[in-house]
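Tutorial handout. Part one gives the primary structure; part two gives the three-dimensional structure as tokens.
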Amino acid sequence: MYKYLNSHPLFQASELRKRYGQQEVVRGVSLHIQPGECLGVIGPNGAGKTTTLRMCLGLTVPDSGSVQMRANSHWLHMPQDALAIKARLGVVSQFDTLDPDFSCAENLLVYGRYFGLDTASLQARIPQLLEFAALSHKADAKPGELSGGMKRRLSLARALVNNPDLLLLDEPTTGLDPQARHLMWERLQQLLQQGKSILLTTHFMDEAERLCNRLLVLDHGQPIAQGQPRDLIAQHLEPDVVEVYGPTALALQHDAALCQLAARVEVSGETLFFYTANATPLLAALQAHPGLRTLHRPANLEDLFLKLTGRQIREDG
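Part two.
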């Protein structure tokens, strides 16, 4: 059971709206984050994820709605308390914003000064942050000498320099290889165990399922589902999925007897997806088609994402 369910929110945004020209890119988005919780925001390109994050950060002014952060027994409000709120936030943006002219240690030192931290405190803290990021051996290296995974971990260390209560991460593992992604996930899990809160946008459904206590699904700028990952899967999907692929797989979508054994049949590329509450009769029937390959698995977040937002590819913008 999710242990922070009944605690007071640390951060909340209510009915956020933002329009650019004739297009309303965020339409009534509300969210809240508990202490020690990871809230994931997922959705297709153009769903409004990054704009929502920017409004939470005070970088984009909403047309309407509110952003608040709890400080002890009272609320801080954006934008009037923007500096006080930002002092309690850590940010890892989608794109690299490290200073290429400074070493890893210097990047942390200079960034810490933006928060008014004194040099002595920062110099005591920097070795701990570099160790956390597995970059102690790169303290004197410049970002241009680092791998993509190292740069992302340095960005995470920099976001922690002010010891924030809440981290806002915009697609933090995009472009990383599997080993680098897993190391980043390990570090984020450590932060959650320490009581930090995380607001995360991601396109990786395995990342969302691994890290997030709750999910907010956006499409066309508005919420279409929210809840704990396994609850959302159970609510919207049949429990079993059978993937069928091979030279004649797509023809099976017209086989009425076969399709009756599933609650839902979908096509994506050269693969046929059968969604069912009981895969046994379907798998038995598919034995009559020996030229095909099948994969039987439980429904997952990717299935949920595709059911709620569609399988059509969307361009950025």
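Part three, for discussion. The CA atoms of residues 223 and 295 lie 32 Å apart. Residues 11-233 form a domain with the Rossmann fold fold (CATH 3.40.50.300).
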